[in-house]
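Protocol step 4 of 6.
Sequence for Zinc-type alcohol dehydrogenase-like protein (Cupriavidus campinensis) entered exactly as in the expression construct, tag removed. Do not edit the line below.
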Amino acid sequence: MKAIGLTRYLPISDPQALVDVEIDKPAASGHDLLVKVEAIAVNPVDTKVRAPKDKVEDAPRVLGWDAAGTVAAVGPDVTLFKVGDPVFYAGSITRPGANSEFHLVDERIVGHKPASLDFPNAAALPLTAITAWEALFDRLGVSPKGDDAGRSVLIIGGAGGVGSIGIQLAKVLAGLTVIATASRPESEAWCRRLGADHIIDHRADIPAQLRKLGFDAVDFILCFNDTDRHFNAMAEAIAPQGKICSIVENAGELPVGALKSKSATFVWEFMFTRAMFGTPDMIAQHRLLNEVARLIDAGRLQTTVGENLGTINAANLRRAHAQLEGGQTIGKLVLSGF
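Step 5 output, structure tokens:
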């Protein structure tokens, strides 16, 4: 089957960084679905895994952790899906990725595709929706039923993939007052369209901008952009007994002592945790994605596609990686069809 893979970890400007390959079609066993991939999305995790390093793979490594497609076969233990079901999912970082014609994925982290979306628009959602949902509702403990309505959340990196769905979840489900960061007019407009109440610039003094808006502190912070750079600002801006969640790994030591006097919480979100460790609650991501699909079909949430780069092939995937590494992407980048 067709796939896009790598054997060496190279700069994205190198044509060999991602190449078109032929690999064996896998077979479903256990709880696995064999999915015929119709569309994929590209995320920063793809570029981080592909980043240059001194390592050579014996066989092509396939990346890609966002997909939508149709169930082509099921393992003997599958109970949630049947052949022919349209699905969407993010998969597991510990297994081959979805940049291939057919892909194996555990049914417990797969959702039924929103009926109102085509495959490319559905493929834009899983990884970021899981990340934002878990960060906001599981890690920060915000109520998805509106029990915290009126409280404030600062979303650092509002126009990115996770921020784009995070704004919607915080506004539509939680009823929070949403302050998002954006550094360009086009990204500011994007955040406002998705429901942000206020916009500030993450390149400038964040606490000062919040005070100018009338917020001496915020109840919650979702950091979707450069934890190291923004940690001190977050420590200053968070309210006493407030909560901060970040999805971006730190490069240096974080001065968490700055949170002590406020009894503030700092917590990580990594959406691959459940699949990576086979946690007893893995099926929570199946339920989560089904709920996202229901909300999409009810018109309460919207897809976050920023640009469709065309057919799934190595050249277009290299373009997607290059755009993400450039740091100017709004929403999600998707590709569809082989």
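Step 6, annotate. The chain has a mean pLDDT of 97.
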